[in-house]
């Protein structure tokens, strides 16, 4: 009896979870000029639309529309001449399906044996705790390759741990460092697979030894742990961190969306053009915080960059989705090495295109402010500004067939990890060769 009751309670908890998204919809949309782009941004503030993906040269954008704003949004989009098409009628139903798939996958238990040398199979998205345990296990079982480092704590006090992967314990300063992080935006679950796949291919099943003989790696699988836990437990579409101690004017609240008045967009919080193209409204999805590096999570990234900036040659901030390789600056101002950033961006994009699923679009390479929209305080911009020559934001593939797009199609996690790593390897090998040439000249 007790067991039956427990199961029942669990099930009802799961189904009650996405109540807030009952009746919400997704619209796919296209913009034809900058005025339309600005108009969609305006609607984001006015109606509480949530832009998941911005339309670009190769594909349309996607927006989440609150239930009681659907008609108004449709009306206004039509008036502005913006083409759109509802794709998901009830987002909650999609989320329930995702939960059922995830619950079934979780029953395939992974080894909890601390001595296991196995990788986590990429057949599901793991919880924050599971990834933490995995990292502890790797550091213990591969002591000659892996060091677990505590980079600091999140706002809610979770440790932000990351891996240093090196065949020389980070002692050989003639090697370049590749630094990558995932899940800065917590709802972008596919990016976890990119980090786990890379860790597997560098540590557990390393079939290309040059990658660790010639290069040191820093991998932060969960750059925003509080947001990530919140996206599992409460709000699947949570993007920001969970800072909840900033005062705001009640006029800022979009009616019905008071839950959004928490958190800082970590990808707008870095000390580079801070606050020039981001929101000063606490309730906005791109709220930049109260000061540059006001957030403990971005301070972790800053410390890693400061500690290793002489050797970090490639920085990759992994987001989803859209099939983009984007480079600084978000303000649309090109840095002096823009041509090389573009060239190496094409290497990365082409390497992914070569193995991607045929129904997905090719990657688009470009300056983020020019290709998409202007934004400031981004992680890639900051990395470049402190001297990392090759700094990118990857927007991973938008897998067709998963209607809500952030929703994870488990069958494609492995593919997502695999194709992304093809791009990462292309970039890593370029910077390795380039770094050697520069050293030789010195
Ligand atoms: C190890 O990596 C190789 C090459 O990527 C792959 O073909 C093979 O399936 C992997 N083995 C395991 C056990 O994952
Ligand atoms: C994608 O790139 C490949 C290789 O460059 C090219 O042959 C193909 O036409 C491209 N596809 C699209 C839809 O642009
Ligand atoms: Zn993102």
From TrEMBL:
SMART domains: Zn_pept
Family note: Belongs to the peptidase M14 family.
Protein name per UniProt: Peptidase M14 domain-containing protein
Record domain Peptidase M14: where: 124-431
Segment forming the signal sequence: 1-16
Any Pfam family: Peptidase_M14
Keywords recorded for this protein, A-Z: Carboxypeptidase, Disulfide bond, Hydrolase, Metal-binding, Metalloprotease, Protease, Signal, Zinc
Active site location: 395 (proton donor/acceptor)
Keyword Repeat: no
Cofactor list: Zn(2+)
Recorded superkingdom: Eukaryota
Keyword Ubl conjugation: no
Residue stretches spanning the membrane: none
């Amino acid at each position: 009896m007790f067991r039956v009751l427990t199961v029942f309670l669990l099930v009802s908890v799961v189904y009650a979870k996405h109540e807030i998204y009952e009746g919400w919809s997704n619209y796919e949309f296209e913009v034809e000029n900058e005025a339309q782009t600005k108009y969609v941004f305006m609607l984001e503030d006015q109606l509480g639309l949530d832009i998941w993906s911005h339309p670009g040269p190769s594909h349309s954008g996607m927006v989440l529309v609150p239930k009681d704003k659907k008609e108004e949004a449709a009306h206004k989009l039509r008036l502005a001449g913006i083409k759109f098409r509802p794709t998901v009628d009830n987002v909650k139903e999609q989320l329930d399906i995702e939960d059922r798939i995830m619950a079934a996958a979780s029953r395939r238990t992974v080894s909890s044996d601390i001595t296991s040398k196995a990788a986590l199979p990429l057949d599901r998205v793991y919880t924050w705790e599971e990834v933490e345990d995995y990292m502890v296990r790797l550091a213990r079982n591969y002591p000659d390759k892996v060091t677990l480092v505590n980079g600091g704590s999140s706002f809610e006090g979770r440790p932000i741990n990351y891996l240093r992967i090196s065949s020389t314990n980070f002692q050989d300063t003639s090697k370049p460092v590749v630094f990558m992080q995932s899940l800065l935006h917590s709802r972008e679950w596919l990016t976890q697979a990119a980090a786990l796949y890379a860790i597997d291919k560098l540590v557990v099943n390393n079939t290309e030894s040059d990658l660790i003989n010639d290069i040191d790696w820093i991998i932060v699988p969960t750059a925003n742990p509080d947001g990530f836990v919140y996206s599992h437990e409460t709000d699947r579409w949570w993007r920001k961190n969970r800072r909840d101690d900033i005062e705001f004017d009640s006029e800022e609240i979009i009616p019905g969306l008071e839950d959004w008045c928490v958190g800082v967009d970590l990808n707008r919080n870095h000390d580079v053009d801070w606050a020039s193209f981001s929101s000063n409204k606490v309730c906005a999805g791109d709220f930049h915080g109260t000061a540059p590096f006001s957030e403990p999570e971005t301070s972790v990234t800053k410390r890693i960059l400061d500690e290793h900036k002489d050797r970090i040659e490639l920085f990759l901030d992994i987001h989803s989705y859209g099939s983009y390789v984007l480079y600084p600056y978000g303000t649309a101002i090109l840095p002096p090495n823009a041509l090389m950033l573009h060239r190496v961006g094409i290497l990365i994009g082409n390497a992914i295109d070569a193995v991607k699923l045929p129904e997905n679009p090719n990657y688009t390479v470009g300056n983020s402010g020019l290709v998409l929209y202007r934004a400031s305080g981004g992680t890639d911009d900051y990395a470049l500004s402190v001297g990392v020559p090759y700094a990118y934001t990857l927007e991973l593939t938008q897998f067709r067939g998963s209607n809500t797009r952030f929703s994870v199609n488990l069958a494609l996690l492995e593919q997502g990890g695999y194709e992304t790593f093809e791009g990462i390897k292309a970039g890593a090998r370029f910077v390795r060769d380039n770094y050697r040439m520069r050293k030789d000249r010195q």
